[in-house]
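Support request, please re-run this one:
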Amino acid sequence: MNFRRVVVKIIHAADLHLDSPLVGLERYPGAPVDTIRGATRRAFRNLVALCLETDAKLLLIAGDVYDGDWRDYSTGMFFVSELGRLRDAGCRVVVVRGNHDAASQITRHLELPGHVRELPMARPGSVRFEDLGVVVHGQSFKDRSTVEDLASHYPDPLSGFFNVGLLHTSLTGREGHHDYAPCTVDVLRSRGYDYWALGHVHRREVVSTEPWVVFPGNLQGRHVRETGEKGATVLELSSGRVESVTHVPLDVVRWEVCEVDGAAAANADDLVDLARSALDGAVTRAGGRAVAARVVVKGESRAHAALVAHPDQWIAQIRLAGRDVAGDDLWVESVRFATAPVVDRARLAARDDAVGQIVRALSELRADEPARASLLSIFEDLRGKLPHEVREGAFGIRLDDPSLVADALSDVEAMLLSDLSSVGDVE
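Re-run finished. Output below.
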């Protein structure tokens, strides 16, 4: 096939998680529940609008359209209805299922419009678009726990076409994500495709540019572990070659973690001012979107004693500062104090007694990543006993997350240093 010298735009998205239940939001006082719960639908409308505005000819969705079985048919009807807007514009759609919307997870069914193709589950399939000079290869998940390497069985590239691999995968593993459809970048390269449109990992990542291997991230952050800009990737082809790969933000609620350096505060009132400044920065970065923010105050601070003595008072002051910044457009999800008293850590570590041993051991453990990771094994049995929604929900307890140990160490060190700093030298 001879490629025409025209520009073809393809939109690559993944992990829509439409109508994600976000269990636990109600327990947060003042949480804008309706705004956050409706954000996944509004972000998907933004995706469809992007296709129309850019005159995209193809939309690729790399799995997890849904977040699991629907409560009713409205979720599926919304998806089908929005895709219908693309038909008259000549934008076709290719979808694969991921772990959340695998055949085993979705019991209800709605017939997809004719311009939408869902790739098969039993074996890899391909869809050719002769007018675009593009062929899309892929395979849907039949079961949630798909642990075999699907990509290694994808078809050979089709000569004369721009070949795209559509795949829901963790590659060789990504923090916070289960190892579904694992494979290596070398396996992807061996298929000879021009672009790999991946899904499953919720943080945008350009894994490779030769060939292009891209996780676009999810369309909309759903909780505080999914911070920052979220959206889709616009792929522009000219004469069958990649001209540009661009990320476009589409989220409507921006999640942020605002870290405040406690060392910069002379007292607790200063900390409130610093938190206000951090929240103001988050609102500015969000560019008019609603913001859901967690404030984390860290470091050795002269305000530590006041925060420990009256935490509720200072949490309330920071929440009020957030309302001053942006009113209802800013929700402070939580305020966490991880401060420690101002101490001479070097002096404590130099002591030739139990105090010095403890301080040195904590310092060594913080610097030893393998040792911290090994501590996670302690929680393995407990993790298996927790209900799925407690482990995997938007506000779930991730006992397989390395940051759990890091955060726990910070808390332990703050408590110990507060006590140890007041212990006199031992003869």
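The chain has 13 helices and 15 strands. Residues 361 and 367 are 10 Å apart (CA to CA).
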